[in-house]
Design goal:
Keywords: ATP-binding, Nucleotide-binding. This protein is α/β, with parallel strands linked by helices and 246 residues long. Helix content is 33%, strand content 28%.
Length: 246
């Protein structure tokens, strides 16, 4: 059974058509690459799945049931998490504090409530161990590399028990070593049975970790193929319009 299905999804902003009749599915634990040039519709698609935009037409289903994802909170309730390119981390806080931000563990002493720092640090350490990341719970985010920051953002989704993670350009503007670390994190998610939609402009990264690739152009889906049945050259041609569809 598919985890996520899009059925004829379209999105219009006044006279501008951002998406037209897009359909595809994602299975549990599957890593799907989503590629396309600027303005292809990738961001709009992600915002529909994550509950920021409602579709103008079409509908979504999640785990076999119709899904009306009216807000990011509803998406999270279903098990859909998004890791945006800016990561939305608080630089002045530790890794553990970022993971638990807004979901802090507390205990009561009379009328007072206190944070359970040790418990949060311990749980964060467990999450980093599951991801095989060297990131430490008490490290400040502002002192971290790009790869470590991604680990914090991904660990936060693991705390929420995500079933599907949308990752927006996770390997943009980081070093080669950090790219390898992030791709390893994505493999860990697959091993845990979590599906990933990877939005990326980096062809080598998509071909390194994805099982299937979806190509968008001008709001249309022009390809949806297993990674072994296409090539970087074909994907480039589809993105640029040198090839109409595959």
């Amino acid at each position: 059974m598919s985890l996520l299905e899009l059925h004829g999804v379209s999105k219009e902003f006044g006279a501008i058509r951002a998406l037209h009749d897009v359909s595809f599915s994602v299975r549990p634990g599957e890593i799907v690459g989503l590629m396309g040039d600027n303005g292809a519709g990738k961001s709009t698609l992600v915002k529909i799945v994550s509950g920021i935009y409602p579709p103008s037409a079409g509908h979504l289903s999640f785990e076999g049931s119709d899904a009306h994802i009216a807000s990011p909170a509803e998406a999270r309730r279903l098990g859909i998490e998004t890791v945006y390119q800016d990561l939305a981390l608080a630089d002045n806080l530790t890794a553990a504090a970022n993971i638990f931000l807004g979901r802090e563990l507390k205990y009561n002493v009379g009328p007072f409530r206190f944070l359970r720092h040790n418990a949060m640090n311990a749980r964060a350490a467990e999450l980093f161990a599951e991801l095989k990341s060297e990131t430490r719970s008490d490290d400040l985010v502002k002192q971290m590399s790009g790869g470590q920051r991604q680990a914090v953002a991904i660990a936060r989704t693991r705390l929420a028990d995500a079933k599907l993670i949308l990752m927006d350009e996770p390997t943009a503007a980081i070093s080669v070593r950090q790219v390898a670390e992030v791709l390893s994190l994505i493999h860990r998610l697959k091993e845990a049975g979590i599906a990933v939609i990877l939005i990326s402009h980096r062809m080598p990264d998509v071909f390194a970790v994805c099982e299937r690739i979806i190509v968008m152009r001008r709001g249309n889906k022009v390809a949806d193929k297993p990674i072994g049945e296409t090539s970087p050259e074909e994907v480039t041609a589809l993105i640029t319009g040198a090839k109409e569809a595959a």
